[in-house]
């Protein structure tokens, strides 16, 4: 058993901190008890210390499996600078370099040894050469194809516990959903691991979702008064990152694009410029951020919708690691949803991916406290609304939307459930475009019965009707809108429908558009 004073002393001496964060102490003690542990802690929560501090005090070597080969050198340099003897092994090294490391392993001169999951072949040699005290598996969710970051090389890691059952394992991740958690433990062969779950509530992050129209104008308005603050804008495509960065530069902002298509050196340079505050804004694909330790990111914008809430949570979590108030903004658009649906359908496990996307969509369209929805996704229930999301700050007003609902549902009915949202709206609004006229829809009795409601408002109302279960989208049939069994209550039995007043909510939300 390890004494408290020793733990605190080591924390201070090697990391410069006076006290542990919530959970760190318990986790570290459990490591010293020789148990297997699964640590679920949000990004920025302080997972590294949970294995680095034990590594310093344990008699032998701690092997760290980490997916980020590109960052291993930085991690090792950082530890070395703190007086902790660390090294890494990967296939890019020269034979001689590796021999030198093995010599140190034999002499027990290394405390932390980073190994990429692709380089597991070294591990047996490490075990025979040295005294191994602990195996740490960072970003452990990469083992699960249910997670959002699946790395095939991780699936070999179950081998470690099979081969070396006496060595305790600590697996760490910021992904919390229950199915993935179980999958991690199953695949790593640590069925009896103690699970340590930290709160996912990051109260200092404000949450906001806005309709994805005139996004660039909205971004400029958002950036007003945020000059020279650090922020990240996540985009779905490389092209978007570049276009946005260019447009921001033209407006006088220090912005750079970051994506996997850039060379290694370019990416390193961009990361460094951001970390040193010589650049303010990164327009990035999701390739950016993993392992980036920058505490003063003041805001994160999602230019496009992420494909699930884990990814979203992880990405917004890069803001405000220093605990100071920070803002997040997500642009929600139906076009993104459709595109993400296509990706999900083409993926290996379409059913799960589509279900996750559906949760993401519900979050974006929420008319109740967003933080509650987000945290409940991670299995955490908060008893009160957060007061720091756009819905809490600006709760929607509901009105009797029965007539609007009847108009929409009967239009879907007249269209024989054969058309997507856009056509339903065109008919409701009496649009004169070629598609409408070719199909002869101008002759329908509902044609133009609601031209006083704007196109965008209709889109919002129809999404609400979908969320309330009156309509559904046939994803496998060209996204045609269909009536559900609930719809007939509205059409034939006078059932009342409440709708959130999107015109009001939108008016309140629309920023002043900057020139
Ligand atoms: P994670 O891996 O969970 O995303 P890190 O281990 O990178 O988080 O830690 C996030 C930040 O918090 C780092 O800057 C780290 O130095 C800092 N940190 C970790 N533990 C403590 C602590 N006990 N006191 C103060 N800062 C801490
Ligand atoms: Zn809220």
From TrEMBL:
<keyword id="KW-0862">Zinc</keyword>
<keyword id="KW-0238">DNA-binding</keyword>
<dbReference type="GO" id="GO:0043138">
    <property type="term" value="F:3'-5' DNA helicase activity"/>
</dbReference>
<dbReference type="GO" id="GO:0006310">
    <property type="term" value="P:DNA recombination"/>
</dbReference>
<dbReference type="GO" id="GO:0005524">
    <property type="term" value="F:ATP binding"/>
</dbReference>
<feature type="domain" description="Helicase C-terminal">
    <location>
        <begin position="215"/>
        <end position="368"/>
    </location>
</feature>
<keyword id="KW-0233">DNA recombination</keyword>
<dbReference type="GO" id="GO:0030894">
    <property type="term" value="C:replisome"/>
</dbReference>
<comment type="similarity">
    <text>Belongs to the helicase family. RecQ subfamily.</text>
</comment>
<keyword id="KW-0227">DNA damage</keyword>
<keyword id="KW-0479">Metal-binding</keyword>
<dbReference type="GO" id="GO:0046872">
    <property type="term" value="F:metal ion binding"/>
</dbReference>
<dbReference type="GO" id="GO:0006260">
    <property type="term" value="P:DNA replication"/>
</dbReference>
<feature type="domain" description="Helicase ATP-binding">
    <location>
        <begin position="28"/>
        <end position="194"/>
    </location>
</feature>
<keyword id="KW-0234">DNA repair</keyword>
<dbReference type="GO" id="GO:0016787">
    <property type="term" value="F:hydrolase activity"/>
</dbReference>
<dbReference type="GO" id="GO:0006281">
    <property type="term" value="P:DNA repair"/>
</dbReference>
<dbReference type="GO" id="GO:0009378">
    <property type="term" value="F:four-way junction helicase activity"/>
</dbReference>
<dbReference type="GO" id="GO:0043590">
    <property type="term" value="C:bacterial nucleoid"/>
</dbReference>
<keyword id="KW-0413">Isomerase</keyword>
<keyword id="KW-0547">Nucleotide-binding</keyword>
<protein>
    <recommendedName>
        <fullName>DNA helicase RecQ</fullName>
        <ecNumber>5.6.2.4</ecNumber>
    </recommendedName>
</protein>
<keyword id="KW-0347">Helicase</keyword>
<keyword id="KW-0378">Hydrolase</keyword>
<dbReference type="GO" id="GO:0005737">
    <property type="term" value="C:cytoplasm"/>
</dbReference>
<dbReference type="GO" id="GO:0009432">
    <property type="term" value="P:SOS response"/>
</dbReference>
<dbReference type="GO" id="GO:0003677">
    <property type="term" value="F:DNA binding"/>
</dbReference>
<keyword id="KW-0067">ATP-binding</keyword>
């Amino acid at each position: 058993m390890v004494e408290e004073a020793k733990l605190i002393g080591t924390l201070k001496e090697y990391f410069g901190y006076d006290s542990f964060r919530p959970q760190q102490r318990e986790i570290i003690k459990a490591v010293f008890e020789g148990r297997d542990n699964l640590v679920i802690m949000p990004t920025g929560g302080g997972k590294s210390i949970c294995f680095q501090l034990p590594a310093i005090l344990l008699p032998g070597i701690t092997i760290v499996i980490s997916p980020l080969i590109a960052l291993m050198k930085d991690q090792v340099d950082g530890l070395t600078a703190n007086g902790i003897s660390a090294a890494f092994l990967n296939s890019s090294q020269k034979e001689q370099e590796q021999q030198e490391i093995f010599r140190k392993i034999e002499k027990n001169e290394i405390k932390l040894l980073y190994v990429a999951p692709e380089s597991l072949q070294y591990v047996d040699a490490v075990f025979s050469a040295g005294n191994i005290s602990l195996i740490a598996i960072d970003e452990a969710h990469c083992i699960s194809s249910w997670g959002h970051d699946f790395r095939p090389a991780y699936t070999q890691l179950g081998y470690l516990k099979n081969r070396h059952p006496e060595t305790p394992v600590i697996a760490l991740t910021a992904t919390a959903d229950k199915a993935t958690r179980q999958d991690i433990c199953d695949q790593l062969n640590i069925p009896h691991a103690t699970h340590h779950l930290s709160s996912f509530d990051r109260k200092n992050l404000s949450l906001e979702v806005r309709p994805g129209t005139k996004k660039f104008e909205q971004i400029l308005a958002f950036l007003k008064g945020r000059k020279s603050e650090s922020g990240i804008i996540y985009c779905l495509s490389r092209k978007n990152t570049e276009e946005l960065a260019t447009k921001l530069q033209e407006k006088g902002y220090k912005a750079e694009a970051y994506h996997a298509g850039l060379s290694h050196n370019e990416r390193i340079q961009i990361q460094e410029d951001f970390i040193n505050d010589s650049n303010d804004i990164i327009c990035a694909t999701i390739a950016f951020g993993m392992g980036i330790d920058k505490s003063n990111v003041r805001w994160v914008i999602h230019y496009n919708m992420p494909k699930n809430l884990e990814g979203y949570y992880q990405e917004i979590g890069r803001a405000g690691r220093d605990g100071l108030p920070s803002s997040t903004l997500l642009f929600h658009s139906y076009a993104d949803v459709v595109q993400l649906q296509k990706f999900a359908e083409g993926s290996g496990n379409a059913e799960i991916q589509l279900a996750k996307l559906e949760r993401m969509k519900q979050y974006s369209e929420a008319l109740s406290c967003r933080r509650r929805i987000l945290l409940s996704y991670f299995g955490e229930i908060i008893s009160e609304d957060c007061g720091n999301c756009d819905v809490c700050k600006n709760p929607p007003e509901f009105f009797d939307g029965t007539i609007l609902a009847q108009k929409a549902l009967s239009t879907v009915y007249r269209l024989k459930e054969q058309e997507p949202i856009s056509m339903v709206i065109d008919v409701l609004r009496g649009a004169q475009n070629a598609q409408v006229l070719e199909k002869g829809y101008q002759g329908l009795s509902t044609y133009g019965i609601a031209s006083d409601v704007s196109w965008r408002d209709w889109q919002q109302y129809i999404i609400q009707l979908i969320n309330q279960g009156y309509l559904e989208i046939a994803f496998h049939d060209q996204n045609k809108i269909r009536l559900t069994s609930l719809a007939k209550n509205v059409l034939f039995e006078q059932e009342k429908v409440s709708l959130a007043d999107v015109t009001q909510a939108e008016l309140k939300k629309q920023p002043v558009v900057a020139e």
